[in-house]
Structure formats: structure tokens, C-alpha cells
Design brief:
967 residues, alpha+beta, Rossmann fold, six-stranded mixed sheet, six-stranded antiparallel β-barrel, 39 strands, 39% helix, cytoplasm
């Protein structure tokens, strides 16, 4: 085919010449003009580019291979659905599935396409640069022509009538601003016609010069309505184009208008934000142009991206409004038909300003130029480094929250470090610090007891000190009359409610007297309640040591003295039962003096009072001694502020839940406070005094029962009031985790000890017990007493212990571990009893502690291996040896001592050395078998499986006896 020009090829194809030139540039061909030739190879390259831009591959079409394959599949099935009248009907179901597979281009094809794209971009860049250069040259030429015309028009006007200087400036600005930015001939004609109209009608937007009637009529004559209807749209479009155009475009437009000397000063005034308002109002809107061909948008964008000076031209706008703000009928019609955005852009009364205008100097309102709203926030560029506080253990989710990142980021970082974790997995402090430093933050290692220290600091407030009632603990040996003494003081009958007449629970009581109030703590005297007595001594201010005058100093009496000295509290000795005939108070004083408890009358510092809990003798003297000792101690504490106390006892009530007996030591405990007691917490729902009446608050030295805790606290735990529930839960969980770690470590150590002990002793017998009691103190005392029964051969293993009734889970645990169930002052519920009968579990109920201990002791005694004792019952001396065809060697013996019995084990001694152990096979006297032979009688003895008997040997006969052992 012969070569044709680009213009002819465009006419053949039927597209504009500008679009064809743009497509040739996109295809990577060299820049061509309209009169340049185009050959077949360039046409083929253009065709290939157009096919690829529309998603087609030239190579695939040539090869005949499809670029994508679509698979469709239909499946038919039937389902049965119930009808309205109970009948079922069949519904046909058709399922259509469609899947498309796309053939991806090869790597070589991709590289080729990338190279073609790069060449296309470079060609487009060169084309954009050339086009921008042509536009700038054309704009400079048009600006020079218009400036020359404006100068001639100004001289002609100067000859006809005088004009103010500001009108000249406005005329120069208008002539400079209306220079066309496009090389289109049609646009240039419109622009020239608009400039002629402006030169005939100079005006000012600030304070316009007075106009004659003739000039006004001439203006209306030269601007008919139909023409203004077309041109009135242009100022609004020009204004929108100016506002939407970036500052870079404005700079380019100013550069393109640089040849005009008269326009430099107004341009500077318009660009400066602090210019005078009048000058800003005088500046007319610039006239912008826009290419009509939408295909050149890519070229403009490429020029803007590569050269930072590309311009996207706008549609050409020309004739501005007429003088005085009046427009023709066509403009009014067009303004009514404006878009909704233009109508909504009119503003309100707050953003309008008054300006002077019009032929008759009347006021009118015009919308001020909207101020661009910009926020003051700037995106931070520097990385944020946080200080992350790390406890001993932390979950991955909590660590991510502390660093203000997503948990997935933390997991991803740990995966790169070679650790696979989940969001709820707990990691240690060292691993967490490595992760924090890896993610660019700073790790702050918290102390193990940081929460405890913070809690202690929050309660270390110094308030006004007020005197408080003394806390008195009554201690002594079992059955010495401690509770009876307190019973007489309280005028109540507490002893009758205790099983066996002995105290098995620690009790707190508040007694009001004439001279003041006293808080009594009654502790058990049994040896199993050592820990309970120690808690009473720690929480007390004064110890009353009760000693029976007819019994003397006993082991628990000495233990009470040790507890009081360890707690560093004074002792008041109450010598009880002085009304009995055998009472000897002086002997009690002598025995206690030997234990470093010296009476005051003997030069010591301990007060002794003789009392009788039965007759009431000396009770007043005892109370007087208690109050006197309290005055000497000068007991005081803060009444206001959060409460702090100690848990005396705790139990599980079936109707009320966890109930804790709390002794307030500092502050005031009120209903509704958040209480933290050891590892449990909760809101105080109700408080009861020692007689069961509800109270709203409790001050220092007042014992109360608290309801509302989440679980049963341990007896002896410290109870404090915290400000919020979140803090209480955090500290409680921390304590639970710490207790769990200690418990696991203790169990592991116990397992290792058991392994070594079993290796040494060959195994021990275990008695597994599941223990339930009514209060926490009883569980602790009974479990400790049972564990003390263990020895090297038998061992008591407390599988589980708790407070409350025996439940089904306790029975399941006993069945699984082969344990016995023990209930101390509790019973099994209905479901547990049914399971106990089904599984035949050994269940024991107790109300008195020493009965439970004795029965367990008997069970352990039965598990002990019996003791085997050997007893020599006879001794025979060999005098001669005979041979028997049936038994072999027969020893003719003389019984020297005791009795020789058949089938008993024997030992053969030679020179008083045991050479054989066996048993008698034959015992005869004068050829007759006999059962036994007494001393001084001859007999024949046949030793089983032994024929090496010699004259002079001794045969020792003995028997084994089993003796049962006890613990």
C-alpha cells in the first residue's frame, strides 16, 4: 500500500486528526504532524496498541488460542416440602454454576508490555512538552496583539473624553486577562470580539467612574440579548475553572502572560493575600480555555506528573457580565437553568458582603468568595515510641493493647522470631520485653509485687486518730472454761451450740460495758486449731490466758503463751474454776512463773485474776483489768476513710452464698463498698452483727458478717476496700495466678519427694480423703491434723477440701481417686446421696474433731504391715546319723530344750553358726510318727532336702508370730 499522510489516514478512519495524533503518541511512534507520512509498519504497530488497550492479545488471536474459558454447569434436584393441608409437594430445584478461567500472559509478554508502556509514556511526555511550548508561544503572540490593540483604543478614548487612571488600570488588566490560552481559531475570534466590547465599555468593580447616558445606551446597543445569553455562562464557568485549578496552573498562566508589561502589577496584587480589598475587587476573573477533545486528558495528566508544569485546559469562556452587574434576558434564562450545585452555591446572609455598584450608585449584595476550610491536623511523620509496662506474665492480646497495635501485628512479629502464639496465650516478662523492643518501643519491667505496693500506698493515708475498743483474744487449753467465761460475760449460751461441749470455731463478739466496749475473739483450744489460734493472736491487742485451777498448765496453754509472745501482745491470766474443791491458784502461778509469765505481785508484768465462770466470781475484776491494760496501750486508729480488716472465719451458706466474718481494724466499712479479701472480691451486699441483725456500717474493732463476695476467702486474709471493681479484679487475679504458681511448684516438689521416698522404702500405702467442712478454719485445722498422722509406711493424702455441703462433683472425685468422703458438720445433698449409693462410696460424718482424727488413725493402723516376730521353741542335739532309703540321712537327736514340733521351720547350726534353714520333714519316736517331742526325749529328725547332717550339729526349731501395729 502506498504511503499516505496522517491527515488522509484520519479522514479514511473517520476520527479527528488530534485524536489520531494522540493515539500514535500512545502507541510509542515518533511525533508526527498532520502532513507527515505513515507507513504500513506504523499502522500495524498502532493497531496492535489499540487491540491491547481493549483487552485483546494479538498473539492469541493469531495462534487461535482463547484467552479465557468459561465453564457452566447445571444440576437438577427435587425436594419435598410440606403443604398447607398436610400434603407434601415436590419442588424442582435447578442449580447453575459458572466458572471462568483466564489465561495469564507469560513473563516475556509482561516484560514486552512494560517496555511498550514505558516507550508510550516517554513519547507522550515529549508530545506534551511540544504542545505546551506551542501553547505558550501562541499565548504570548496573542497577548502582544491584544496589548497593542488596547493601547490604540486607550489613545482614541483619551482624545474623545478624559478617563480616570483606575479605569486605565482596569482596562489593561482586562485586556491582559482575556488573552486566550488555546490555539483554536474559533476561540480566538470569540476572545477578540470580547476584548473589543470591553475596550468600548471600560468599568471598575470597586468605585466605578460616572457614565454618561450615551455610553450606557451604546453599551445596550452593542450587546443584544441573544448574544449575551450565550456569553453570560462564561464568567461563572471561568470562575469555577479558576477555583478548581491548582496553584501550579495559575503560575503557568502568569508565566504565559509575562510579555504584557501593564499586567505585572495587578498580577502581584492579586497573588498577595494581604492586598487592599479595593484592588482585589477591581481584578476581573481570568479567562481560561479547555480542549474539546477528551482523549487528550492522558497527555495533560502525563505532563502534570512528569514535568510538574502540565495544565489540563478548560473549556473556553468569554464575555463577562455587563457594566453595573446587569445581564441580558438570555443570561437570566441560563442562570435559571443552572445546575443544582450552582444554585446551592449562592450562600446565605452571613457570607454576603455589600458593595457599591450600578448605574445609580445603589447598594446590592454579592456573595463573598468562600474561604477554603482547612483543618490544622498534620499527619505525624516520626514514629511514636511508647513505654510499655510489663508484669511478670501477660497475654498477647494485652501486650498488643498496651502498644496500641493490633494483636495480629504482635503475633506476626513473634512468628518472625520463631515463636507460634495465639491471642490468648500467656508469655513471660522476658519474651514480652524482646517483642516490645523488636516493635520499636521501650519495655518497663514491673516488680512482682507492684500491684500490692500500689494498693498499700493507696491505703497509707494519715487521718485523724480516734480511740478504739480493744480486741481481746481468749486462749487456753481445751476444756479449761474459755467459752464459759465469755458466755458469762455476754450473758448468752454459746457452749450449748457447740458439738461435744468444746469450741471448734473461732468466734468474734462485741460487748458494750459502762466504761467502754470490748471485742472478744474466742479461739478453740484443741491442738488441731493451732493456725486458728495464731490468727487470733495476730489480730488481737490483748490475750486472756485461761488456766483451770484444778488442771494446771497444759500443752495448749504453753502454745498460747508462745503465740502471744510471737504477736508481742500483753497477757492477762485468768485462773478459772476456783470454786472447785481441788483448785490451787498458787500452783498455777508457780508453773506459769517457770514459763516466764511472772505475776505482778511477784515482781513481774503479768496480771493474774482469779475467776469462776460458773458463779461469776472475779468477772468484774477481769473486765477492769482488760480496760486498764487497754488504756495503757493507748489504742487509736482512723475512723474515716476506706476500711481495712482481717477475715476471722468464712463459710458457705446455701441461701446466702459466701459469708465471711470480718473484724474491722481501720476505717469504716459501709454497705456497697468494693471489698478485696485475699484472692476474692465483691460488693458488700449486706452486713450482719454477731447476733444476726443487719447493720449499714461498721467501725474499728467491730466484727461483722459480710455477704456478697465472689468466693470463700481464706481465714486470716487481709481485707481492704478498693475504689473500683476493676482494680479489685486485677489484684485478685494477680493473687490467684501467684497462688497457682506456688501451688504447682509445691505439688511438683511433693511429687519428687514421693518418688525418692518410694524408691527408698519400696512404696507406701496411701489413704485418699475428700474433706468437706462447714467453715474454712475447720477445713484447715482438720486437714492439718490428718496430715500429721502420716509416717514412712502410710500416708494421708487430702485429694480435695472445701467449704459447704458434699456435692456430686465431690463424689465423682472420690470415685475417680478411690478416696473416702468425710463431712465435718456438713451433709451430702440429694444428688450426691444417690450417687454415693450407686457407686458404693465410703462416707463418714463427724461433728467432733477428735472423733474424726481417731477414726482415721484406726484406718491407718489397719493399713500398716504387721510385725513378724520369731520365737525359738525347741533345741535338739545330733547324737548319730542313720540312712533311710525313703528320707535319706536321719539325725538321731536328743531334745535338749523346749519342744520340737513337726512342720515348723528349723535351722541347722554347726559350731553355733547357721549353715542351713529349712523345715522338718519327718519326726519319729521308736518308728512312730509323732507331732511333737518334749525335752529330754530322743527322736529321729529328717530335714527336708538336706543330707549333710553330722554328729554334733544342733537343730533349732522356731515359729513366726504376727503382731498388729498401731500409730
Amino acid at each position: 500500500m502506498a504511503q499516505v499522510t496522517v491527515k488522509q489516514f484520519a479522514e479514511t478512519v473517520g476520527i479527528p486528526i488530534e485524536r489520531l495524533l494522540s493515539q500514535l503518541g500512545d502507541a510509542g511512534l515518533p511525533t508526527k504532524a498532520a502532513d507527515d507520512n505513515i507507513n504500513d509498519q506504523e499502522k500495524l504497530q498502532l493497531l496492535t496498541h489499540l487491540r491491547q488497550s481493549h483487552g485483546k492479545s494479538n498473539t492469541d488471536v493469531a495462534a487461535g488460542d482463547p484467552s479465557k474459558i468459561t465453564l457452566q454447569r447445571k444440576t437438577h434436584s427435587e425436594i419435598r416440602v410440606p403443604g398447607s393441608q398436610g400434603k407434601t409437594k415436590t419442588v424442582n430445584v435447578e442449580v447453575r454454576k459458572k466458572r471462568t478461567f483466564v489465561k495469564r500472559p507469560s513473563r516475556a509478554e509482561e516484560e514486552r508490555q512494560q517496555q511498550e508502556e514505558k516507550n508510550r509514556l516517554e513519547a507522550a511526555q515529549r508530545e506534551a512538552e511540544a504542545m505546551l511550548a506551542r501553547q505558550q508561544e501562541e499565548a504570548a503572540r496573542q497577548a502582544a496583539v491584544e496589548a497593542e490593540k488596547a493601547a490604540k483604543a486607550t489613545e482614541a478614548t483619551k482624545d474623545s473624553k478624559p478617563v480616570k487612571p483606575e479605569a486605565k488600570a482596569n482596562e489593561a488588566i482586562a485586556s491582559e486577562r482575556t488573552a486566550p490560552a488555546s490555539s483554536s481559531p474559533k476561540t480566538s475570534e470569540k476572545t477578540e470580539r470580547s476584548e473589543r466590547d470591553r475596550s468600548d465599555r471600560p468599568r471598575s468593580q470597586g468605585k466605578p467612574a460616572p457614565k454618561t447616558q450615551g455610553s450606557h445606551a451604546h453599551s445596550n446597543k452593542d450587546n443584544p440579548a441573544p448574544k449575551d445569553a450565550k456569553d453570560s455562562r462564561e464568567p461563572r464557568e471561568s470562575k469555577d475553572a479558576k477555583e478548581s485549578k491548582p496553584p501550579r496552573e495559575s503560575r503557568d498562566n502568569r508565566d504565559s502572560r509575562a510579555p504584557s508589561p501593564a499586567a505585572k502589577k495587578p498580577e502581584k496584587t492579586e497573588a498577595t493575600p494581604a492586598a487592599a480589598p479595593a484592588a482585589a475587587k477591581r481584578a476581573p476573573k481570568p479567562v481560561t480555555t479547555r480542549l474539546l477533545d477528551e482523549e487528550d486528558d492522558d497527555i495533560a495528566a502525563l505532563g502534570d506528573k512528569k514535568l510538574n508544569k502540565g495544565v489540563r485546559p478548560k473549556k473556553t469562556t468569554t464575555t463577562p457580565r455587563a457594566a453595573g452587574g446587569k445581564v441580558g434576558a438570555g443570561a437570566a434564562k441560563d442562570s435559571k437553568a443552572a445546575s443544582p450545585r450552582e444554585r446551592d452555591d449562592r450562600g446565605n446572609k452571613f457570607d454576603r458582603q455589600e458593595v457599591q455598584g450600578g448605574g445609580r450608585n445603589r447598594k446590592r449584595t454579592r456573595r463573598a468568595k468562600p474561604v477554603e476550610q482547612q483543618h490544622g491536623f498534620t499527619k505525624p511523620t516520626a514514629p511514636i515510641v511508647r513505654e510499655v509496662a510489663l508484669p511478670e506474665t501477660i497475654t498477647v492480646g494485652d501486650l498488643a493493647q498496651k502498644m496500641s497495635v493490633k494483636a495480629a501485628e504482635v503475633i506476626k512479629t513473634m512468628m518472625t522470631m520463631g515463636v507460634m502464639v495465639t491471642i490468648n496465650q500467656v508469655i513471660d516478662q522476658e519474651t514480652a520485653s524482646i517483642v516490645v523492643e523488636e516493635m520499636g518501643h521501650k519495655a518497663k519491667l514491673l516488680n512482682e509485687n507492684a500491684l500490692e505496693d500500689e494498693l498499700a500506698k493507696s491505703h497509707s493515708h494519715d487521718g485523724e486518730q480516734h480511740p478504739r475498743a480493744p480486741v481481746v483474744t481468749i486462749m487456753g487449753h481445751v476444756d479449761h472454761g474459755k467459752t464459759s467465761l465469755l458466755d458469762y460475760i455476754r450473758t448468752a449460751k454459746v457452749v450449748e451450740s457447740e458439738a461435744g461441749g468444746i469450741t471448734q470455731h473461732i468466734g468474734a463478739y462485741h460487748v458494750e460495758l459502762e466504761r467502754g466496749s470490748i471485742c472478744f475473739l474466742d479461739t478453740p483450744g484443741h491442738e488441731a486449731f493451732t493456725a486458728m489460734r495464731a490468727r487470733g493472736a495476730k489480730a488481737t491487742d490483748l490475750v486472756i490466758l485461761v488456766v483451770a485451777a484444778d488442771d494446771g498448765v497444759m500443752p495448749q496453754t504453753l502454745e498460747a503463751i508462745q503465740h502471744a509472745k510471737a504477736a508481742k501482745v500483753p497477757i492477762v491470766v485468768a485462773v478459772n474454776k476456783i470454786d472447785k474443791p481441788g483448785a490451787d491458784p498458787e500452783r498455777i502461778r508457780q508453773e506459769l512463773a517457770g514459763k516466764e509469765v511472772v505475776p505482778e505481785e511477784w515482781g513481774g508484768d503479768t496480771m493474774f485474776v482469779n475467776v469462776s465462770a460458773k458463779t461469776g466470781q472475779g468477772i468484774d475484776n477481769l473486765l477492769e483489768a482488760i480496760l486498764l491494760q487497754a488504756e495503757v496501750l493507748e489504742l487509736s486508729t482512723t475512723v474515716d476513710g476506706p476500711a481495712r480488716g482481717v477475715v476471722i472465719e468464712s463459710r458457705l451458706d446455701k441461701g446466702r452464698g459466701a459469708v465471711a466474718t470480718l473484724l474491722v481494724q481501720q476505717g469504716t466499712l459501709r454497705k456497697g463498698d468494693i471489698l478485696l479479701a485475699g484472692q476474692v472480691f465483691g460488693r458488700v451486699r449486706a452486713m450482719l452483727n454477731e447476733v444476726g441483725k443487719p447493720v449499714e456500717s461498721a467501725g474499728p474493732s467491730i466484727p461483722v458478717e459480710v455477704l456478697g463476695l465472689s468466693d470463700i476467702p481464706s481465714a486470716g486474709d487481709e481485707a481492704v476496700v478498693v475504689p473500683d471493681e476493676r482494680k479489685a479484679r486485677e489484684i485478685a487475679l494477680f493473687r490467684q495466678g501467684k497462688f497457682r504458681d506456688v501451688k504447682l511448684a509445691r505439688q511438683q516438689a511433693a511429687k519428687l519427694e514421693n518418688v525418692f521416698s518410694q524408691m527408698e522404702a519400696g512404696g507406701t500405702a496411701n489413704l485418699n480423703i475428700v474433706l468437706k467442712a462447714d467453715v474454712n478454719g475447720s477445713v484447715e485445722a482438720l486437714a492439718d491434723a490428718l496430715r500429721k498422722l502420716s509416717n514412712s509406711e502410710v500416708r494421708v493424702n487430702i485429694i480435695a477440701s472445701g467449704v459447704g455441703a458434699i456435692t456430686e462433683s465431690d463424689v465423682n472425685l472420690a470415685v475417680a481417686s478411690g478416696a473416702i468422703l468425710m463431712g465435718f458438720n456438713v451433709r451430702a445433698d440429694s444428688s450426691a446421696r444417690r450417687m454415693i449409693e450407686e457407686e458404693n462410696v465410703d462416707l463418714h460424718y463427724y461433728s467432733i474433731i477428735f472423733e474424726a482424727i481417731n477414726e482415721v488413725k484406726q484406718a491407718l493402723s489397719g493399713m500398716l504391715a504387721p510385725e513378724i516376730r520369731e520365737e525359738i521353741i525347741g533345741l535338739a542335739e545330733v547324737r548319730d546319723v542313720f540312712r533311710s532309703p525313703k528320707f535319706g540321712a536321719i539325725a538321731g537327736c536328743l531334745v535338749v530344750d523346749g519342744t520340737v514340733k513337726r512342720n515348723n521351720p528349723i535351722r541347722v547350726l554347726r559350731d553355733n553358726v547357721v549353715i542351713y534353714e529349712g523345715e522338718l520333714e519327718s519326726l519319729r519316736r521308736f518308728k512312730d510318727d509323732v507331732a511333737e517331742v518334749k525335752a529330754g526325749t530322743e527322736c529321729g529328725i529328717g530335714v527336708k532336702n538336706y543330707n549333710d547332717v553330722k554328729v554334733g550339729d544342733q537343730i533349732e526349731v522356731y515359729q513366726r508370730t504376727s503382731i498388729a501395729r498401731t500409730i
